[in-house]
Amino acid sequence: MNGPETIRIAGVQMEPILGAGERNLGVMLDRLGEAARAGARVVVFPECALGGYCFETLEEARAHAEPLPGPSSARFAEACADLGVYAIYGLLESDGERIFNAVALVGPEGLIATYRKVHLPFLGVDRFATPGDRPFAAHQAGPIKIGMHICYDGAFPEPARVMSLLGAELIALPTNWPTHSETAAAHLPACRALENVVYAIAVNRVGVERGFRFIGRSSIAGPGGETLAAAGPDEETILYAEVDPARARRKKLVRVPGKHEIDRIGDRRPEFYTLITSEKSAITPHA
Fold this sequence. Notes:
The protein is α/β, with parallel strands linked by helices. It has six helices and 16 strands. A six-stranded mixed β-sheet has the order 5-4-3-2-1-14. The protein has a six-stranded mixed β-sheet with strand order 6-7-8-9-12-13, covered by helices on one side. It is globular.
């Protein structure tokens, strides 16, 4: 039961079918309804949940991409309006000849925001996608402010920090983590939550696609780095957690007044971090 200051969020761990956009969309809308009936106000789906991930060529992938706004965002908007919820889902976005690995944030009012994956690994459709060209941002979704990034983006601490500085109270990370990503699934959501004193949700897929096994292990972490909910490696499931946006706004943690107080945002020393924003070509890593 939600308290007066909390909302329920949900992550839908599912198995999309490669190239089966209409089927996958139907499953997502069904799960959206299930989560809403369970009290969720924000529902997050995996990376590339609409059409799948392991495409072999740009031409093959382009056939399963769509613009934003587009057909799937319109269907989500209609469902969100009926259910009174907000949804984040992954898809391939078409923009002229380019495709982007993208996520869309949709609510009762329609398409609110989109994000295009900035960090692209040499894997799946990311081998052919165009790198994201939009800044990290934080978006109001009803009672909570949300920042969005995608999968490999989460391996870099800077995106979550930027979104937190912009006021995000929940950091959403739709993923397609395959085998060899177990450590990332185990630690990244809690670490990013702890570093920034925010809630973090990582929602992965399951199943096998063109020889790649995806490892599930979706999770939700609280602002102290505590795990609020976690899924296993194989099952399709929905995980839930109660979150208090006000807690994510209280950055100064007073553990023993006058003796033990920390502020991971206020205690930053940006003047010592300038190397982070240097051009890569100007940096010579030490051996």
